[in-house]
Amino acid sequence: MKLYQLRALIVVAECGSMHEASRILHISQPAISKALSDLEAGLGAPLLTRSAKGVQLTPFGQSLIRHARAIEHEIRHAREDIETLLGAVRGTLTIGVTPVTSVGPFADVLRRFTEAHPDVTINVLELRPMQIRESLTEGSIDFAVMSRIGEPDASRFYWEPLYTTSNHIAVRSDNPLPSVNSLADLVASRWLSLDRPDDATGVIGTLFDAQGVEPPTNVLRCMSTGLYVELATTTNLISVWGAPAFQLPYLEGRLRKIVLREPIPDLVVGLVCRDIELVTKLSATFIDMIRSACKSLSTPYRRGDSRAKRRTTK
């Protein structure tokens, strides 16, 4: 298995065409075909299917390409680290975030980092936790600052809690919902969620499961943060928010908290990456800045336990 073969597989899969891949890689189509045929022969499995519609990955190809992208990602890391050691502070930094992250110290750290390193290309991708795990596996992001409920319990990625904040159930300020004091009173109501209602790591799923109450079935899933805000403040849908959201000017006076007798689990914001020992110098610099910023947080944030560092998938 050679690097140029994996690179050819990645480009062909992304283009869906040998012709287009040849143009991008600046090598002939026969050379690409031979590289992929040799790769298939070495593995003893077909990686691609060819048809009039183009080239598609087989299940074997879909499995291999995840590893191929991760390998390519690590090679780029190694190259950028060497360039940094040689004094050239440039490269690309791709960071995954969940919506809650943008309300905390992340934006200020990002601003200061870009000012200090103007030659670094930075991509910030808003993703859901499951997408962050997939992106880390594929190597399409360097690390993520993400929110989740509670501490993870599996062991694949590195996880480091940065800070904690409270969660609140809310409705728009003039919602006609009668007075309620229990989750059971809200099961039949319509909810708004960023995650699937059956997602065990999501707020709604975690909240109802912890209390032994069947989760609501009438849930509108909305993965757009902007549309989530619009729906939460203009419809009768019940939504869930981290405490910092209520300090945002565009939400002031537009939401009403629902106080229940059941405790609502806190939201933990933390750093997650494939391996903290293998992050690039640029990533390490950004991570150190976000750690430092989190040390001086005040209400509505609470600092995470820096000793609680481990590897995890969830």
UniProtKB/TrEMBL annotation:
Record carries keyword Transcription regulation: yes
PROSITE patterns in UniProt: HTH_LYSR
Gene Ontology, cellular component aspect: cytosol
Keywords: DNA-binding, Transcription, Transcription regulation
Matches recorded under Pfam families: HTH_1, LysR_substrate
Record has Metal-binding as a keyword: no
UniProt feature coiled coil, ranges: none
GO molecular function, one term: DNA-binding transcription factor activity
Residue span, HTH lysR-type domain: 1-58
Domain of life: Bacteria
Family note: Belongs to the LysR transcriptional regulatory family.
Protein name: LysR family transcriptional regulator
Lineage, opening ranks: Bacteria, Pseudomonadati, Pseudomonadota, Betaproteobacteria, Burkholderiales
